[in-house]
Amino acid sequence: MEIFKILSRGFKKAMNKKKEKIAIVGAGAIGSLVGGILSHVGEDITLIGNKAHVDAIGKNGLHIDGKLGKFKVMVKAEESLDFNPDLVFISVKNQDVETACRKIKPFVHGVPIVLMQNGVRSIEIAGRILGKNNLIGCILLLNAKFLKPGAVSYVNQKPILIGSTINGKNDDLSFIQALLNHISETTISNNIIGAQWSKLLVNSLGNSLDGMTGLNLGQYALHSGLRKIGILILKEALMTIKKAGIKLEPLPGMPLFTFTSLIRLPTRLAAWLLKFVLLNKGDPNIITSTLQSLQKRKKTEIDFLNGEFVALGKTMGIPTPVNEKVLYLIHEIEQTHKFFSADTLTKKFDTKIWSG
User: Fold this and answer.
1) What is this structure's pTM?
2) Dihedral sign of CA atoms 100, 101, 107, 108 in order
3) How confident is the model at residue 3 (pLDDT cuts 50, 70, 90)?
4) In which band, very low, low, confident or very high, does the pLDDT at 169 lie, cut at 50, 70 and 90?
């Protein structure tokens, strides 16, 4: 009988354990997907988002479909953070990180902050406001789409990578890893900054090509001229990274050596092989966050993506004309709301001189 008493006490202790209060700041496609799934498995989640999305969730719940099935979850949603959470995920766009950090600063002293942005800048921005000791980098290789207020879709399930942004062990990583494993397989990295640069290299291709054309992955992968532009973007970005002495880190399911070897091939051959690399990525209907923003006539993160290589090049005195043109054209589309056809875009890049 004693063993049953011990087991009973352990069960009651586990049942009475206080759940961590988790805030998802920036309930867009990614934030809503992560928060919705975690709420679905029993975590105490509060989504922080815009009024239309918050109202829709409050009225009808959050609807999620895609890779983990179709379900509805009645998750808490607010327009601003007004309590002290135990853990925060920030999933706003890069250009909104500073504002988000200033708004939540009174509530997050000493709280682990997980930064889920593309690019490499959010850690620096958040660190200036919240301090660096509790920041955790998070790289999502998956893809989600915001359908309408109150509904998101899990388009492509790929691994997640997390890591401390300062030297030394972070005791929160294992707990966060366990949480994110509900969304997709999650790995802890000892070089999260290097991994962010690797992801940025990958983003520089997809976010620019679909952003400039309005085409999904399956469509732009079939056009040889667009693939050649993609290789030019990657060659220039990799050259800049190499000359800056930045150590890249392999990403789960994406062998870095294979990827960089492809980029180093002659442009014409690399562009031909890129077709098979792209079509092997999963759902051909995938579109990036850049194209999703343009479709909603919102400002993109392109300054924090391809723009990062332009900025790095200027710092080191290295010309980056291909990525500069990407920036110029994406900003033009932000103003005109008109995409370029594949043939028109190819003519805007001098691909002939790069055809070796």
Assistant:
1) 0.89
2) positive
3) very low
4) low
Domain 17-190 matching CATH 3.40.50.720: the answer reads yes
Token pair of 125 as six digits: 């921005």
On whether the CB atoms of residues 190 and 161 are closer than 8 A, the answer is no
State the sign of the Cα–Cα–Cα–Cα dihedral 321, 327, 330, 333. negative
Residue pointed to by tokens 């920030």: 90
Q: What distance in Å separates the CA atoms of residue 293 and residue 299, rounded to the nearest whole number?
A: 6
Tell the residue number behind the tokens 């999260």, with chain if given: 192
Q: How is residue 181 annotated by DSSP?
A: T
Q: What are phi and psi of 135, to 5 degrees?
A: -85, 140
Give me the amino acid identity at 50.
N
* pLDDT score at 139: 97
Question: Could you tell me how far CA 175 lies from the centroid of its own chain?
Answer: 20
Q: Which of these, 42, 37, 36, 48, lies nearest to 20 by C-alpha position?
A: 42
DSSP-assigned letter for residue 167: S
> How would you classify the pairing of strands 160-164 and 135-140?
antiparallel
Name the token pair of 141.
Answer: 């290789």
pLDDT band at 166 (very low <50, low <70, confident <90, very high): confident
- Look at the alpha carbons of 87, 91, 97, 102 in this order and tell me if their dihedral is positive or negative: negative
* Beta carbons within 10 angstroms of residue 232's beta carbon: 22
Q: Which residue has the tokens 């099935």?
A: 69
Residue 87 host element (H or E): strand 87-90
User: What pLDDT does residue 13 have?
Assistant: 38
Residue 49 carries which side chain, given as an amino acid letter?
G
User: What are the sequence ranges of the domains in the chain?
Assistant: 17-190, 195-354
pLDDT one-digit tens code per residue, 194-229: 999 999 999 999 999 999 999 999 999 999 999 999
* Residue 330 in this model has a pLDDT that exceeds 80: yes
CATH of region 195-354:
1.10.1040.10
Q: How large is the angle between the packed helices 192-213 and 224-244, nearest 10 degrees?
A: 150
